[in-house]
């Protein structure tokens, strides 16, 4: 997985990770926010990934074991985020920066997706 994909995946899962880290306590949340700061600055490397995997293990996220590594899966048994069929969307959004490969579909009537690292609304793009 290249850095842009890793950053996009981290951004997409950051809300979930923040909720888990908040429930785990100040130390876990502080460690996650440090990882988020480094990611926002583009400092993703093997050490960053190892610290993220370790934090995920501490938060009880089984997908982040050494045999699977990051990123966690989004669907199937033990998934991080709910997945499944939903209403079709005509709105596709991409990261507002060039350093990330994140794309999201906006559900009809739903809020515009927001970048978890920079706090900006994702940019609307046309469907191919």
How do you describe this structure in short?
With 128 residues, this protein is mainly alpha-helical. 39% of the residues lie in helices and 9% in strands.
What does this molecule look like?
With 128 residues, the chain is mainly α. The chain has three helices and three strands. The protein has helices at 3-24, 26-40, 46-58, and strands at residues 91-94, 103-106, 123-125. It has a three-stranded antiparallel sheet with strand order 2-1-3, with no helix packed on it. Strand 1 and strand 2 (103-106) form a beta hairpin. Helix 1 (3-24) packs antiparallel against helix 2 (26-40) and helix 2 runs antiparallel to helix 3. The chain is globular, with a radius of gyration of 15 Å.
């Amino acid at each position: 997985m290249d850095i842009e994909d890793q950053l996009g995946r981290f951004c997409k899962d950051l809300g979930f990770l923040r909720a888990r880290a908040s429930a785990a306590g100040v130390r876990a949340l502080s460690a996650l926010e440090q990882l988020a700061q480094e990611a926002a600055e583009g400092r993703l490397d093997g050490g960053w990934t190892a610290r993220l995997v370790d934090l995920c293990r501490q938060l009880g996220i089984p997908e982040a074991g050494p045999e699977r590594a990051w990123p966690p899966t989004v669907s199937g048994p033990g998934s991080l985020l709910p997945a499944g069929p939903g209403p079709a969307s005509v709105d596709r959004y991409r990261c507002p920066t060039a350093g990330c490969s994140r794309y999201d579909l906006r559900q009809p009537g739903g809020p515009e997706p927001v970048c978890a690292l920079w706090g900006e609304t994702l940019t609307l793009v046309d469907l191919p």
